[in-house]
Specification:
CATH class of the largest domain: Alpha Beta
Number of strands: 12
Largest sheet: 6 strands, parallel
Distance between the termini: 42 Å
CATH topology of the largest domain: Rossmann fold
Length: 343
């Protein structure tokens, strides 16, 4: 392992441990049920430059608009701690309690019925409970665009000096679970829509926090001539981005704008607009219209998912962005139906 990689992974580990130790969270610890107070229970630590950070951005936005907020972090491998944190903010001191993602579904399913007067928002999954508003995201549709972009890079590589034209791309997932397979299904479909000849490599880290293993799996793909690797591995995906830089190739980020994480190597980031969706439902709650007991889905048609090219240094030409957008419009119009593994 080279020294640069060691320093990067060590810094990531220290950051995660330090934030997890904060446990009690950030923001005000008092709230109320006036509709303008919210607690965010994170089944892990902030600082993943990904999914949890995006959710927290929504809480930060609400705080700036006058909300009383609290964020509770935890050890990513300690579900008992997630549950204890969730219960601690479910006794009426907050108008809303937010939690996600799919790994925490059991925690919310067990806890919500015990606090029937508490209103919850569960993002990136569906909880069947009368006091939970569930938010889901069509990651297959957003990943379809990521697959289109990756395929264009490896098949029309004249505009991408780090691509060899190998017609090989990859995806490194976090856990081997249905939602991650849904990312992969959409990514493969997007790539094949551009060219059936594109080879798509896939692997799973087995963790959303092991950046060293994420690095190793991405490196293996670059060693197999992949021009682009899409990371859908949460904090573990930071290692994928590092591997792209070290290999002199490209990556696609996920869940938050990661385009500057390894400047010149991250083409775009596929966003589930989690933070924005949390703000949206919080505003609905203020009006007494929180969709509890229901699931609200966000996809390409309502801009709930999509690619961002912001802060990528202009490495994707406008002509290529326009081609990707043509595929987006075909999905929105129904001309293309993106496959899903979630039914």
């Amino acid at each position: 392992m080279n020294s640069k990689r060691c320093r990067h992974i060590a810094l990531t580990a220290v950051l995660a441990v330090g934030l997890a130790a904060c446990g009690g969270g950030t923001g005000a610890q008092s709230g109320g049920t006036d509709g303008k107070s919210i607690a965010n229970v994170v089944p892990g630590a902030l600082g993943d430059q990904s999914f949890y950070d995006d959710a927290e951005s929504g809480v930060t936005t609400l705080k700036s608009s006058g909300y009383k907020t609290s964020t509770l972090q935890a050890d990513a491998s300690n579900p008992a701690q997630w549950k204890a944190n969730l219960q601690s903010v479910s006794t009426g001191q907050f108008g809303l309690v937010v939690m996600g993602s799919s790994t925490a579904a059991d925690t919310m399913t067990e806890t919500a019925p015990k606090f029937p007067d508490q209103k919850y928002v569960f993002y990136d999954g569906e909880i069947k409970a009368p006091n939970v508003a569930s938010l889901t995201y069509k990651q297959n549709e957003g990943s379809f665009l990521a697959g289109v972009l990756a395929a264009l890079v490896t098949t029309e590589n004249k505009d991408f000096p780090l691509a060899s034209g190998s017609k090989t791309i990859g995806l490194v997932g976090g856990m081997d679970i249905p939602v991650i397979h849904d990312f992969a299904e959409g990514f493969k479909a997007g790539a094949k829509a551009v060219s059936p000849d594109v080879k798509v490599l896939t692997s799973f880290v087995g963790s959303f926090s092991d950046s060293a293993k994420g690095y190793d799996q991405a490196k293996a793909m670059f060693d197999q001539k992949a021009d682009v690797v899409y990371q859908v591995a949460g904090g573990a995906g930071v290692g994928v981005l590092q591997a792209a830089k070290d290999a002199g190739k490209y990556a696609i980020g996920v869940d938050s704008n990661q385009n500057e994480v390894q400047a010149g190597h991250v083409l775009a980031s596929m966003l589930k607009h989690v933070g924005a969706s949390i703000v949206q439902v919080a505003k609905e709650n203020e009006k007494g219209a929180l969709p509890v007991g229901k699931t609200t889905s966000f996809g390409l048609a309502n801009d709930g998912v999509g690619l961002t090219y912001d802060d990528n240094g202009g490495i994707v030409p406008q002509a290529v962005i326009a081609k990707v957008d043509e595929y987006k419009q075909k999905v929105v119009s129904g001309e293309i139906k993106v496959p899903t593994v979630l039914g």
